[in-house]
Amino acid sequence: MEREIGRPVLFSLAAEGEAGVRKVLQMLRDEFELTMALSGCRSLSEITRNHIVTEWDTPRHLPKL
C-alpha cells in the first residue's frame, strides 16, 4: 500500500496528463469514502485512533509453535 499519494499522481500525470491526475485523485477519494463508510464513519471528525492500524500496532515477530 502506498504511504503517500505522490507516486500515483506522478505516474498518472506522465501517462494521461491533467486528466490522469484528476482520475487518480478521484479514485483515492472514492476509496477513502468507501473505507470510511465501511468503518461506520460519516465524517472525518468521527475517525479515531481506534480506526487506524499501523505496522507498530501488530507484533513484529510471532513465536514459532
What does it look like?
By secondary structure, the protein is mainly α. The protein has a domain of 43 residues. It is built from one helix and no strands. It is flat and about 50 Å long.
Through-space gap between termini: 29 Å
Tell me the structural class: mainly alpha
List low-confidence stretches.
none
Biggest sheet architecture: none
H/E order of the elements?
H
Average pLDDT rating: 87
The helical percent reads: 40-55%
Rg from C-alpha positions? 16 Å
| Total number of helices | 1
| Total beta-strand segments | 0
Beta-strand percentage range: under 5%
Shape: flat
Cofactor: FMN
Organism: Brassica cretica (Mustard)
Protein name: FMN-dependent dehydrogenase domain-containing protein
Domain FMN-dependent dehydrogenase: 5-53
Write the layout of secondary structure elements.
Layout: H1 6-39
In short:
The protein is mainly alpha-helical.
Keyword list:
0% strand; 65 residues; 52% helix; 1 helix; flat; mainly alpha; single chain
